[in-house]
Amino acid sequence: MILVSACLAGVKCRYDGNDNANHKVIEMVKKGLAIPICPEQLGGLETPRIPAEINEDKVINKKGENVSSQFKKGAKETLRIAELVSCYKAILKQSSPSCGYGKIYDGSHTGRIIDGMGLTAKLLSQKGIIILTEEDL
Ligand code: SF4
To answer: Is the minimum distance from the CB of 98 to ligand 1 under 6 angstroms?
Structure first.
């Protein structure tokens, strides 16, 4: 089974209440090949929510609040689901502080991108799950 970022499957779970619908991901879910998950919602954050970025070892939202615990919980709950469904691969939304794989925002909330990994992508990858992003499709 494949896990996909729910926003790529058209779920309006982004911080601003929108989605990042990708027709290839939606087709995979429709065919029963993939399960949509949103780590930030699984971590207990509301939608819409204040955008957050990784800043060194913390996740800080635009109001300056530390939301690291919710992001860590979301990563752990995503891993729980991945193990339940014997997930071997995940297709995640690039640049997100949860789902980004290879690129993330730099923590300054200015739109600048740096090399890095979101918390969920990092945890899944450490557990041997192959990570792709929508840019690889
Ligand atoms: Fe999409 Fe992942 Fe952000 Fe949820 S946490 S909105 S699935 S990029």
So the answer is: yes
